[in-house]
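We read letters as residues; the fold follows as tokens. Both lines appear below.
***
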Amino acid sequence: MDADSRSDQTSRQKTPYESPRSERTSRRESPRQSPQLVVDKDGNLSLEADGVSLRGDFARLLPRLRPQNLRRELIVRATRVRGVASPVLVDATAGLGEDSLLLAAAGFSVIMFERDEKVAALLGDALRRARQDPRLSEVAGRMRLMQEDAVTGLKRLELRPDVVYLDPMFPARRKDAATNKKLQMLRMLEQPCTDEGAEALLAAALGAGPRKVVVKRPLKGPHLGGLRPSNSLAGKVVRYDILTGPPAT
């Protein structure tokens, strides 16, 4: 997931969409309020807490979708499959869907799983707006959202995906609390992946029988589930571990 979203802050009048009880946390934690979904007068959703606003915004990624930029994206290089006319990819940890958008622009039909109801609502709203945007409608048309835990959803797939992509929430780093309130807001809804959860997620991904499983990790982080990849592509901050499966029949 690209949870470090720099989405536009909504300044228009808003009407509460859902109002869970506030949760008291220590002074060092931010945001302190439980995030709320709100809808503005135009029907657009955002997630808000302590004056911080987060909204899915695919339009801001348009520069990265230009062909000359897209082909240089590490995630596109890591997930690429050859000899498949209409490849299918499952993004098992969709979050706000930014990685899915890049992959759909690269030619995949993308099935997105997002287990958290509020995050899925943000993603669904961003997808709705993208389908109404002539610049994004074709790409967004190749993206399908499932509000479901991927461990369960992968077992129920009626097709064999070419790629399963995993981007579990990274463990919190100290500087996150000071510099990234939007990421902290998401962490209140989606906890970092535990060892047990990682093993279950990886097992479900491999069990779906893809040509490859691609896992996004911190650059110096351990392999997900302790499983050594077949190959890795590393950038300055993250790396993509690639586990290849048997060729499709």
